[in-house]
């Protein structure tokens, strides 16, 4: 049973199933779900995982492109007291094997980006593995080739028996997030429910996320920036728009199509967005964006200037953080359109204060 006085990332379900019951909360291409549908999908998968034999404290390794299904897997594993270890789909199998040997997952879940890992992980490569699962819906040939289960199989075999409540892994752990490895090999950092909730509260307070936001998933869910921002958006009941991975053209199309209001970037992403607009000489839909949080390095003066031209109505912030601190530690506002419109620059405000 859940301990209601403790933070848990699935506490957002009550809000999603009531206030956002009939509102869109996930958009993944043609696949769209309301708050109630998202909660139902997560609980169905959670039941399937329990009946398969996944236990409290078990680790589930996931490697896949961004999608609503990926988010649902994170929540379903968390709901039953499991721990998710998101792995970078860009890794070679050897890099992934080293990570999995460290965290000892009972289950490996991938989409088509990493199906070959399942063959390579058989035998003694990763002794802890019991189950291999496809996150997406592959053909029967693929299922047989890699001897995988699918999410549909787990849901179909699940049986509803009474009400369910969320539970906790030991010490409140929910994510083992790997660092980028800039100072050596990637290291697995244990992230707790409380850390994610506190980080979400900070982002809500400083960036200003609300239930009216449409958040574009530009950062991968294997990265702490992508994970922590996703949790913040779940907390406020915002809408999640997914693209498989960041490509400037895909991102700009999604911004226009879904009237995206918020996203996160790193300097290279921002540069790609600006370059893409210049090459195609288009700038449709960017006025909908109201909040941009940049991380992974500071933006140059030229990038800031170009970004404010591309997203003239967006509050632009830069954050510094680490995986070990569950993402952002400090925030700096680089551009505030409300102040600029009133003729008060951030520099003038700083001098006045």
Automatic annotation (TrEMBL):
The processes (GO biological process) annotated in the record are: fatty acid metabolic process
What SUPFAM superfamilies does this protein's entry cite?
Answer: Acetyl-CoA synthetase-like (SSF56801)
The UniProt entry, under InterPro entries, shows: AMP-binding_CS (IPR020845), AMP-dep_synth/lig_dom (IPR000873), ANL_N_sf (IPR042099)
PROSITE patterns for this protein: AMP_BINDING
Outline the extent of the AMP-dependent synthetase/ligase domain: 17-331
GO MF annotations in UniProt: medium-chain fatty acid-CoA ligase activity
Q: What is this protein called?
A: AMP-dependent synthetase/ligase domain-containing protein
